[in-house]
Amino acid sequence: MARSRRDILSGTARTHEASIGLLGLPFDANSSFRRGPAKAPASIRTALASASGNAFSETGVRVWPSEHVVDLGDAAIPPLAGEREPLDAIERAVYSALARVSRLIVLGGDHAVTYPVIRAIAQHRRPLHLLQIDAHPDLYPDFEGNRYSHACPMARIMEEGLVERLVQVGIRSVSPAQRVMAERYGVETIAASDVDPRSPLVFTAPLYLSLDLDGLDPAFVPGVSHPEPGGLSVREVLDLLARVQTPNWVGADVVELNPDCDPTGMSATVAAKMVREIAALMLARAGE
């Protein structure tokens, strides 16, 4: 029987159906330019628990702490660059987590983690659509000889046919090689200059969200390894996500926070805000 939003807010919804797991993936061995995102899961958890905020989303859903959102801790991942072993460890950790919860929010880590996360989720949910918010397409066939670089996860995902549709939003740093890959796989790209948060994004299959924090303008999130000016505001991202239409949110990741580049902690605060609002969207959908 469908549950109302009132049930979700009052805590009477059945936890085993509505529960969301937070899984940390402290891995940045496939980062280029700067390391540091391996420290992000701890920073995001600290920001989530900070007394500067509260447990509720903007729509009034209690998120953290909440009986509907459980912390699954961090996966153990060998810090090896360009190797399959850490990706396999991530895939196993995500697959195992999905035996315990119905939805998963991954705390990255660099963007390389999205590929093995999607591999695991695709074993549970097909067909699957993917919404990526990012400054970069991450569609390189390989980057500096590394096929598993954080500049390549979307190429690996599309090559293996793990998702039926990829929509990229906020893109503003594209190379010719990535344009070729986008055309080859029918990737739908909405450049940062063309984003209209008031226009709904409609998906007809279960949806996974991959939120690279450098998709936001560095004025709002300076604590990333590859800041790219001209991006989205916090409000634009939240409004865009609130207008997404999908039969089901199956998971999300928030990646590329670099605490070493975040001396004030504001970028971690934004990351925690995104986690809270994404979880609220998932819980609201579970209650329909």
Walk me through what this model shows.
By secondary structure, this protein is of the alpha/beta class. It has a single domain, classed as Ureohydrolase domain (Arginase, Chain A, 3-Layer(aba) Sandwich). Helices cover 31% and strands 16% of the residues. The chain has nine helices and eight strands. The chain has helices at residues 5-10, 15-18, 40-48, 84-97, 114-124, 153-159, 176-184, 234-242, 266-286, and strands at 20-25, 69-74, 103-108, 129-133, 165-171, 188-191, 207-212, 249-255. An eight-stranded parallel β-sheet has the order 2-1-3-8-7-4-5-6, with helices on both faces. β7, α8 (234-242) and β8 form a beta-alpha-beta unit. α8 packs parallel to α9 (266-286). The protein starts with a helix and ends with a helix. 52% of the residues are buried. Residues 1-18 have low confidence and may be disordered.
Quick summary:
The chain has 288 residues and is α/β, with parallel strands linked by helices. It has helices at residues 5-10, 15-18, 40-48, 84-97, 114-124, 153-159, 176-184, 234-242, 266-286; strands spanning 20-25, 69-74, 103-108, 129-133, 165-171, 188-191, 207-212, 249-255.
